[in-house]
Structure formats: C-alpha cells, structure tokens
Design goal:
The structure holds 2 protein chains of 2 kinds. Chain A is an alpha+beta fold. Helices cover 26% and strands 17% of the residues of chain A. In chain A, the strands form 3 sheets. Chain A has a 5-stranded mixed β-sheet, with helices on one face. Chain B is an alpha/beta fold. Chain B has a domain at 7-96 and 134-166: NADH:ubiquinone oxidoreductase-like, 20kDa subunit (Rossmann fold). A 5-stranded parallel β-sheet of chain B has the order 2-1-3-5-7. Chain B is globular, with a radius of gyration of 17 Å. The chains are: A alpha+beta, B alpha/beta. The A-B interface holds A 95, 99, 101-105, 108-109, 111, 114-115, 117-119, 121, 123-125, 128-129, 131-133, 148 and B 85, 88, 91-95, 97-98, 100-102, 134, 137, 139-140, 144, 147-149, 151, 173-175, 177-180.
Chain lengths: 235, 180
C-alpha cells in the first residue's frame, strides 16, 4: 500500500487515509456509516444505487462516496438533512420500480433494502408503483432468479466476473428495462459457463437470487465481504 | 370517563387478511388501558352499520380494491380527524395489489377464484361491488396522516401510536415498524 496519506475532514472529524482511498472506505474505516446497496468490499465499485451520495464543501453537486477518491483538504458531509431526504427518496424509487412485496419474499427480514427502508424511516412511498412483470427463471437445479425483486445493484454480476471468474451473469437493456441475464440470455439451466457456485445468491442484497430449498439465513448468514476478501487473497 | 369524553376511534377492514386487526387485539392487557380512554364507534369488531360523524382516529387495514371501498374510504376521510394506514396492504398495496402486474388483473383474479379453482357452481358473482382496475394504497386516494407498515404491524407499535395520539402527542413512527 502506498505510504502517502491524505488528510481530510468527514463530518467535521479529521481523518488520515492512504491516497486513492474512496470516501466510503475512509468514512467506514473511521467509524462513520454511509448507507449503500451496490457497494461490497472486495468487488469493483459501481456507483449505481446512489444511496451513498455525499456533499463535498465547495462543490455544487453531490458525489457517490463509493467511487470518489479522497483528496487533501476535502470536507465531506455524509449526513445532512438534505442527504437524508434524498436517501429516503432513493429508497422509495427503488421500492416503486419493481414488485417489492416483503410479506411474500424469500428474503423477508434478511433484506438490505427492507432494513435500509426501516432504518432511514421510509414508512410509505410518494411514488406510484410500476407493477411491472419480469421473468422468473427457476430452470437451474437450485438457483432461482426472480427479476421482479432485482434492484440492479449488479453485485451478482461483479462477483460472478471478478471472484468466480466466469462472467455468466450480465445485464441486458438499459434503464428500467434492464435485466440480469445468463450467458447470451439463456435459461439458467442451459448456461454453459455457470459453475453453480452460489456466490450470486450470497451477495444479492434482496431476494432476487436465492437458493431453492435453503433457508435464507444460511445463504446470507456469512459476512459476505469477508468471504469475498478471503477468495480474493487466495488468487 | 363517560362515553362523551372518550376519544372516538374507528377501525376499517378493506382488502386485507384481518391480520392487522388480530395484531390490534393482540395488545393483550394493554387494550384494557386503551378501553378506558377510547370508544370504538365503528369496526368489524362492533355492530355499527354506518360510519358515524366526528371520529377522532380511524385505523384502516387493507388496500382499496373495489368501488365500495373507494367510496367508503372517501366518506371515512371526510368524517375523521386523524387517519392511519395500518399495515402493508394499506401502505403499499401488498399482496392484494399483486394483480396490478396484469393488465386485466381484476378479471383474471375473479376467474381464478370462481371458475378455475372450483368444481361446482362455476360463476362469477355479480351482486358484489365491481373491482377497480388497479388495487391502490390509501394515500394514493386520500390524505393519510400516519403510516404503520408491517405485515402485520406488531401489537406494541399499534399500542405506541394510539397511546401517543391519546396523550395529544405526535407519534414518531420512524424506524419503529418495518415492511413485511
């Protein structure tokens, strides 16, 4: 690791971190929590969920903490009233985009979207729901993808590519039409690259990818970041 | 406390499974303390046929799925000071709203219930309120003052909300109840 360090202020606390560290990591290493859904330690940062947006003093726009590297003298605000409002709105947009019905979801009580909604005080959504209908693929022996619950965080795609190294999963289409697919949009059972490693189910923050017949507590009970970091070090 | 001084509370059961009402009853002995201060003027639990005037607090379980419910909700809003969405169906639409994902979900739901899943007397009832195109959460139709998500919300969170309101305070629901 580079010996050069950078000094900056996060929520008025002076911190010193190695050059090139992201704002998110700098904050977390110093005990300041920033909510995220797409970021996962050990995977490339993607900046898709927009929950980690922070204010930087002197800058007119907001920055995603997970993809913005720190710079010397930076003054970061992670928890202003405006940011809290934006985060609540982001959660509401995620909830209204697809069919998130906790009461009938396999990940009920073990879902990062659900627990963030609760934590940030989202008790209803000001946005009308889309009520779209996406395809469920249960052709695989035990892995199931219910795209109605997907929030497009792409954790599964990144873990499949970067850790398992097979890149079975990817996205097709753009925007609200975007969907996670296997190989060239095959049924999961027909995927010739999938190794059935279950990492996608493990990292899925919601109930979109799960292992059929396995209690969700077992699929998601590990410290996922630690598991990925261990795999990464094994090379 | 005479009936006149008591806070007038109503509960309403729209498209839901009655689980939220069960949770309301599940307050156990705490409901006795509540009973000293409130009078339940309209509810599936009491035998009043029409929704009365001047209700202080109305708790509503369930989503709005048919015309009768839509009209009743508007009437209730006009006659109630504080209206509370109780439970996920009232707050999000939840399970009753799953049919929204189909263009003609109402029709499909009726066919499923009365034609496909029955052996005898296959017919779709006509002498009942017509289903709406889309099932809606309450706040998309009327102003809602407080939201208590949960499937069902716990008895303690219902008790908290009512106790705070009865004491003349604003309940802070943030982080107290969760979806699902």
């Amino acid at each position: 690791m580079s010996a050069t360090t950078v000094k900056l202020k996060i929520d008025n606390v002076e911190v010193e971190v190695p050059e090139g560290t992201t704002i998110l990591k700098a904050a977390r290493d110093n005990g300041i929590e920033i909510p995220t859904l797409c970021a996962l330690e050990g995977l490339t940062n993607y900046g898709g969920c927009r929950l980690c947006l922070v204010e930087v003093k002197g800058a007119p726009k907001l920055f995603p903490a997970c993809t913005t590297p720190v710079s010397a003298g930076m003054e970061v605000i992670t928890n202003s009233e405006q940011l809290r409002e934006y985060r609540k709105m982001t959660i509401q947009l995620l909830l209204s985009e697809r069919t998130h019905v906790c009461s009938v979801c396999v990940a009920n009580d073990h879902c990062e979207l659900q627990s963030l909604a609760n934590k940030l005080g989202v008790d209803h959504s000001i946005f009308e729901r889309n009520w779209t209908r996406k395809e469920i693929d249960s052709s695989h022996d035990f892995l199931v993808i219910d795209r109605n619950r997907c929030i497009l965080c792409t954790r599964c795609i990144r873990v499949c590519d970067e850790i398992e190294g097979v890149h079975t999963l990817d996205l097709k289409q753009r925007g609200r039409k975007a969907e996670v697919i296997m190989d060239l949009d095959e049924d999961w059972a027909n995927s010739c690259s999938c190794t059935s490693c279950r990492k996608c189910a493990k990292v899925c923050p919601v109930g979109a990818i799960y292992v059929e017949g396995e209690p969700i507590t077992r699929t998601k009970n590990k410290d996922v970041a630690e598991f990925i970091l261990t795999r990464r070090k094994r090379k | 406390m005479s009936a006149k001084e008591k806070i007038r509370v109503a509960t309403l059961w729209l498209s839901g499974c009655s689980g939220c009402h069960m949770s309301f009853l599940d307050q156990d002995e705490l409901i006795l303390d509540l009973a000293k201060k409130i009078q339940v003027v309209y509810s599936p639990l009491v035998d009043t046929k029409t929704f009365p005037e001047n209700v202080d607090v109305t708790l509503i379980e369930g989503a709005v799925a048919n015309e009768e419910q839509q009209n009743l909700l508007k009437e209730v809003r006009a006659k109630t000071k504080i209206l509370i969405s109780l439970g996920d169906c009232a707050v999000t639409g939840n399970v009753p709203a799953l049919r929204n994902a189909w263009e003609d979900g109402g029709k499909l739901a009726l066919e499923r219930a009365y034609l496909e899943n029955t052996e005898v007397n296959k017919q779709i009832p006509r002498a009942v309120p017509a289903l709406l195109d889309k099932v809606r959460p309450l706040h998309e139709l009327v102003k809602v003052d407080y939201f208590i998500p949960g499937c069902p919300p716990s008895a303690s969170v219902i008790n908290y909300a009512l106790t705070e309101l009865l004491a003349g305070r604003t309940p802070n629901m943030e982080g107290r109840s969760k979806y699902g």
